[in-house]
Amino acid sequence: MRTLTAPPSMSEQVYQEILGEIVSGRLPQNARLIQEDVARDLGVSRHPVQQAFILLRNQGFVREAPGRGVEVTPIDIEFVRNLYEIRAAAEGLACSLAANRGADKAAKHGAKLIEEGRKAERECSVSKLINADVKFHEFLYEISGNKLIKEMTQPYWLHLRRLMGEVLMRDETPRRIWDQHQEILDSVIEGDASKAEKLARLHISRTAEVFVARLEKQRSHGNFALASST
Hints:
Blueprint: H1 10-24, E1 32-33, H2 35-42, H3 46-58, E2 62-64, E3 70-72, H4 77-101, H5 103-122, H6 126-144, H7 147-167, H8 173-189, H9 193-220
Antiparallel strand pairs: 1-3, 2-3
Helix pairs in contact: 1-3, 2-3, 4-6, 4-7, 4-8, 4-9, 5-6, 5-8, 6-7, 7-9, 8-9
């Protein structure tokens, strides 16, 4: 039998459209979305918009708004800390396994990924930097030989993309990130599992510290509405 591929449903298309606006920052925190307005703007009925809202709410990207509709969920500092703690553990494991199982692949393909990131940095393109960053880390998951790492972290990457837009292109952050990526890659190529794990965990922890510090500074100046921790 041949494989059947169904086109994305209207609800999925609406979901992807709204999600893209949130992740890119074009829909800012606390932006209100009214079902009827979204349906009119996208030229669809209310039902697929309602279904998209339900999925986005379940994933934490929107929440019920006072009165009508939903609003884009503000970034919560405690959520960020928890997210990066999980990511640090997953990245450390992935890089340790990659050093043991994928050193040859890292040597063959890793340099190209680093160059893509450096190029995005030179072009000052946030979208390209985010894509290059995701591609680099997913490459490490792949060569780790443990498919569950990618499956486990996949639900968090949409939130991470949204967060990364706040960190990238600030002062020397992009250059530091790709310097750290190079160090991680070198340790994987060398087959040094202990060093690779340590560097990966440190890389994620540093990123989290920078991001949380910036969020706290913005909150103290009243420029960034944050949800209370839950």
